[in-house]
Amino acid sequence: MIGTLDAKIPSGPLDRKWQSHRDHSRLVSPNNRRKFEIIVVGSGLAGGSAAATLGELGYRVKCFCFQDSPRRAHSIAAQGGINAAKNYQNDGDSVYRLFYDTIKGGDFRSREANVYRLAEVSNLIIDQCVEQGVPFAREYGGLLANRSFGGAQVSRTFYARGQTGQQLLLGCYQALCRQVAAGTVQMFPQTEMLDIVVVDGHAKGIITRNLLTGKIDKYPADAVVLASGGYGNAFYLSTNARGCNVTATYRAYKKGALFANPCFTQIHPTCIPQSGDYQSKLTLMSESLRNDGRVWVPTRKEDCQKPPDQTPEQDRDYYLERKYPSFGNLAPRDISSRAAKEVCDEGRGVGPGGRGVYLDFADAIKRLGEDTIRERYGNLFEIYHKITGENAYKVPMRIYPAVHYTMGGLWVDYNLMSNLPGLHVIGEANFSDHGANRLGASALMQGLADGYFILPYTLPNYLAGQMGKRPSTDHAEFKKAETDVHAKIDNILRVNGNRSLDSIHRELGTLLWNKCGMARNAKGLREALAKIPELRDEFWRTVRVPGKGQDFNQSLERAGRVADFLEFAELMCIDALERDESCGGHFREEHQTPDGEALRDDDNFATVFAWEFQGNGQIAAPKLHREPLHFETVHLTQRSYK
Ligand SMILES: Cc1cc2nc3c(=O)[nH]c(=O)nc-3n(C[C@H](O)[C@H](O)[C@H](O)COP(=O)(O)OP(=O)(O)OC[C@H]3O[C@@H](n4cnc5c(N)ncnc54)[C@H](O)[C@@H]3O)c2cc1C
């Protein structure tokens, strides 16, 4: 079906590719735009910005989300900031440097051309958001303020306290509402996409379930855009909003879209440690805190249970500063997370169960005063206080790594189009620009780059050849997809067992965390691959989902998502096993340098893995396609932050 994967990267010098591509892409004339219907699944920063921009251009857009308002998309949770190469600090930043840091940060597993374009458009995002009134933090003189995030030696992160996602989403929501009022965008909140419809090989519609009434509907379109976010909740416990799931992308995968690098998961180093077995969610403490907080553990195991102020300075191990003197506490996430795991595995962790390290603000408070720290991070300290009951102005925070972001996603070419013509994928839902490890503050940049500045140019390139090709919902493919959706819902309700959804999902999450989490090895992955089908079988025999389909039924909603996680988890482990090297967040214990860093194998694995579903009910044994990665500007080197 699919030959060699062609990313359709434009020819020419790296810094001219995007301009030249725009110059040569096909256009849709203003009068014709209203003849095209575009479905956008997702109203977070990626989907919301795409829907608003396409509406403004004159297309007719239908935008779907499962929350009761687009304003509640998970993007609202983003705390620390958004990167851009403005060089307001005059500290040596440039488009090239942001590009380079991102390629290196991703451990050389992303596409040069995409990443360069991302760095190029980063500055436009800030301008656009400022015009919208996003209240970015400012310096005394009025210029926008910046702070640093991991993996960079410049300050390029724009922020609005610890609520950057919320403020950016409000800006985006205003733009979206303007289009709703203008009649170009129709919003469908509390509506979940359960399948895409493929007609003659092109994505031409979706099947949805109204979450309030249970009604199943069919929507045709000229193109479908998935902006459905990441799948970190496969692990059950993560920093993601509880609703985040893999359903939209996984069901597209089952309809022929390739899933790229599904095992690339980001484990964030600074989260509030898990406090009990029945916890349903973990909470991030933004990476921005590492601008002023110092990470340490006691040098001696015997000091670990003492209160932190009883461990004198000379008995503390500021292990990030010790191991990575150039980047110190701002070493990238994959590296900082592994370093935290390492000291805890040595028995030097603090807090209950020894699964924690300190993030200490005492020096910064001494230097800058408590008020300055409160101004910078006040809401994060408040969240920490509410959850732990501890005052982090007085005692160090306790943090531990947790699942946070997924670099894997549906495979897309340079136009952000999947291998299924008409199906475009943006934001965290695509396999994106972050390679094997995303740098902090780059997800918001990517989501908004995709939605405001890239898709609006690349989508017309597809649409220009599609005039009059939108099918009617009477088409057999719509009927078949609708029947399949009904059947899946009926099957879930029919089980009528006695085991709770949460207990099955939690068991899956624990398995993934232990075998396909911060460290993986072939033996563990094989064990997980043996266990996951058993758990899936258990789900289909014993799960209890009360209520009915034609009604408001949150258990049913969640059951569909957990059923997809139970299939998708297998793909994650297959991918992790096949990638027999370490890179970024994918740390295969068999492949490490003498000092415990990830050891890549560029000869065999400088490539994207993109998996094709084989159909016939077969979940295992998907077909592997490769997209070789070519590095023409950046030289492949062992990543070092020392
Ligand atoms: C706690 C936290 C803090 C973060 N802080 C930062 C930060 O400071 N800087 C940064 O760059 N990144 C940060 N990130 C990452 C960043 O927030 C996300 O990667 C980004 O917001 C994802 O945006 P998105 O638009 O792709 O998806 P989302 O915001 O997740 O939106 C997904 C949308 O898809 C919809 N959807 C999903 N499935 C379906 C379906 N089947 N049917 C209908 N609708 C569907 C949802 O309703 C939602 O509208 C943070 C992440 C977390 C968890």
3D architecture notes:
The protein is of the alpha+beta class. The protein has helices at 17-24, 30-33, 45-57, 95-105, 112-132, 164-182, 247-254, 319-323, 333-345, 362-368, 370-388, 442-463, 476-495, 501-516, 522-542, 554-578, 602-605, and strands at 37-41, 60-64, 82-83, 157-158, 185-188, 191-199, 202-210, 216-220, 223-226, 259-260, 265-271, 294-298, 316-317, 357-360, 397-406, 409-410, 423-425, 607-612, 623-628. The strands form five sheets. The protein has a five-stranded parallel β-sheet. Strand 7 and strand 8 (216-220) form a beta hairpin. Helix 3 (45-57) runs parallel beside helix 12 and helix 15 runs antiparallel to helix 16 (554-578). The two termini are 46 Å apart. The mean pLDDT is 96. The site of flavin-adenine dinucleotide has 45 residues, from helix 3, helix 6, strand 6, helix 7 and strand 15.
Largest sheet: 5 strands, parallel
Rg from C-alpha positions?
24 Å
The total beta strand count reads 19
% residues in beta strands: 5-15%
Bound molecules: flavin-adenine dinucleotide
Distance between the termini: 46 Å
Structure annotation, total helices:
17
Q: Percentage of helical residues?
A: 25-40%
Structural class: alpha+beta
In summary, what is this structure?
The chain is an alpha+beta fold. 37% of the residues lie in helices and 14% in strands.
Feature tags:
642 residues; alpha+beta; 5-stranded parallel sheet; 5-stranded antiparallel sheet; 17 helices; 37% helix; binds flavin-adenine dinucleotide
